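Exercise (ungraded).
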Amino acid sequence: MEALRMETENLTVYYGKHAGVRGVSLPVYDRTITALIGPSGCGKTTFLRALNRMHDLNPVVRVEGRVRLDDEDIYAPGVDPVVIRRKVGMVFQRPTPFPTMSIFENVVAGLRLVGVRDRDRLREVAERSLRQAALWDEVKDRLNEPAVGLSGGQQQRISIARALAVEPEVLLMDEPTSALDPISTQAIEDLLVDLKEQVTIVIVTHNMQQAARVSDRTAFFLDGEMIEFGPTEQLFTNPTDPRTEAYITGRFG
Amino acid sequence: MNLRRRYLRDRIMVAFVYLGTLVVLLPLGFILVHVFLSGVGALNWDFFTKPPAPPGEPGGGMLPAIVGTFVIDLMALAMGGALGLGGGVLMAEYPEHPLNRPLRLVANVLGGVPAILMGLFAFVVVVLPMGGFSAFSGSVALAVLMIPIIMRATEEVLRMLPWELREAGLALGLPRWRVTLSLVLPAAKGGIVTGLLLALARAAGEAAPLLFTAFGNSFLSFDPLGPMDSLPLKIYVYAISPYEDWIRQAWGAALLLVLLLMVTNYLARRAVRR
Amino acid sequence: MKARLYGKLGDALFTALLVALALGVLGVAGLLAWELWVGGAPAFRAFGFWGFTLSSEWNAVSERFGAWPFLIGTVVTSAAALILAFFPSLAAAIVVAEYAPRRLGEVVAYLIDLLAALPSVVYGLWGIFVLVPLVRDHVEQPLFLWSAEHAPALMGLLGPPTGIGMFSAVLVLALMILPYASSLARDAIRLVPREQREAMYALGATRWEVVRRVVLPYARGGIFAGVVLALARAIGETMAVTMLIGNSGQLPYSVFGPAATMASVIANEFTEAEGELHLASLLAVGFLLLLLSLAVNLIADFILRRMSVGEGRK
């Protein structure tokens, strides 16, 4: 059994008065991939964004319950969201390269924040992160070109490299391949499996095959609640809840 | 970790941007309060009903300027509205028309031409040939000022309507002109009215284009071919005059003008909401 | 048959009407430039285009006219006003679009729009009776007296402490373009996609770091284009400047002293112009003002096109 890296306890997220996520308790194990699946609007993205306090940016959203990272409650008073987000990185649905920055500057943007100026160190980290994101060979000769000149799949891997550069403990991914073509999707899925050697991944996906292919454990969300959680294989082959079964056999969603 | 330093910078910048905002807003407060306090005393019955007293004599009012403001601005709105709407509709509804490229250029360029040059233009093309200053020439100057505003607003509003609206009409067998007149324009009515009112508000505050066109007139006049007065013009003339009572009335006129503009802007906002 | 006629004839008439109106718009714009050029031609002919533009003598009695003092006056006052206005307007835009809670942001944005709608003459009136005495008594006189005592060499540079002059004109001009520049910057900042901000937050950035490294760079095209448009606005601004700048036909030689801009000299002298050449010279100044504002507007357009990122272009 792997060690516990993150854990939510009775997590509820309110949008105004409406609870978008209700009472979810989910363990996230170290160096594994946890997939969150469910139909649109089921709260899986909302849940994911609670894991690195992204909801703090939206004043109408309120989070209740506990989220522990290495046994520390990230919503406890005095805990700084800036520090948490450094430990828990995020990759978004659409590639988000910073358009005014070069490929290199994009990847080291997180290091620049903390004031790393040492050229050699920055280069080293950029190379390592780009290699991790399986992009080094494609861009190593044009690191100073704008990142927006790359293809969509490459841009998404830039976003991944950028998130990896700050060496997060956990990487949250919000449907990272939904805006990409099948070949780029394949490349990123391969990448994920390699990445879990180094980092814990929680991935929201709309695509059940993707969850089945890459993840170790899967949580099924429906209507703001977590219906079922378990090893991926078990959840897909032998779900305990009839609603899970209905979903994975394609009867709705 | 230098987190503390980063937060310090974060806090300092919060202070800075709010301070900057204060620098922007405080003068507004000062100006509005001052205009109100200095102007409210001048607004009496005479102010609205009497023509100005002869220079140096106290009393008198702003009637010619108030009437003139409405006459000049409404004539301008009629002219500028027609041309601006025509251009805007052509740009939005006939995107394939060859005139659109120059029209778009003109809409951009004309919007950047200083208002005083509209006055010079109207002087040369209206005042000189007609042999004298006139309200009409002032309206021409203000109309030119309004054209790009109305044109751009109209085009923008029409473009926001879904293209399916036109297709639905055409599919019913309506000719294109009926589609534009009976479907598109009614659907965009609120936005178009907003554009017209904003252009009106913009022009109504201008004195520069009227200096050598409408020129000003101390007597009540409804003759569009003769000189006519206007509130912004009167504020300028009174403000640089040496007479205390005129200066007092300049503040009154400023207050009245600001109130009129605020009402116009409010109506413009309301029109777009419907 | 009848329906066809109704459709075809109607379409023909309707497009003819629209085209006529559109031609009217084009005609007005073309005529505006043409008439200013023709009206100013006698002056350009008498002194030469560059002779007129670069000569700094403006004398109605000797009938020698040159636009240089006004060109300089326009550029100096506008640029100075823009420098004063830049940071506060950007700060207000950042507050409205990024920092303030929604309601406060709306209120501030509304007030800024209101400020932008105040007529030039009202700023001028306020300038004459509130700002000028303030500047005279609390800025110019103390400075002037101080320099008289400690640095007499500076006195010439400062100019007469009357309150009326370039200094006051620049202050009012800055106040007037603040809301305009701010609302353009606000629009540019609002075009920055939310994902961009979130991506930076997710790297562990503070709010200022997000603004500084993501929002402002992304919006730079719109912000700088807005700044240049505000400059264009300042260049053409007439009434308030005319009321405050002191209207001197000489090159501005001092900070507090009187000067004139192209717009202010037209406003001030046009109705009193005697003699064909004086009138033509004022029209020629108008033509130069037209060229200058067109050039500045084109620069704004160019900046918007060249510096914008992504779909940020309007």
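Further reading is listed at the end of the chapter. For now, observe: The radius of gyration of chain A is 18 Å. The mean pLDDT of chain A is 92.
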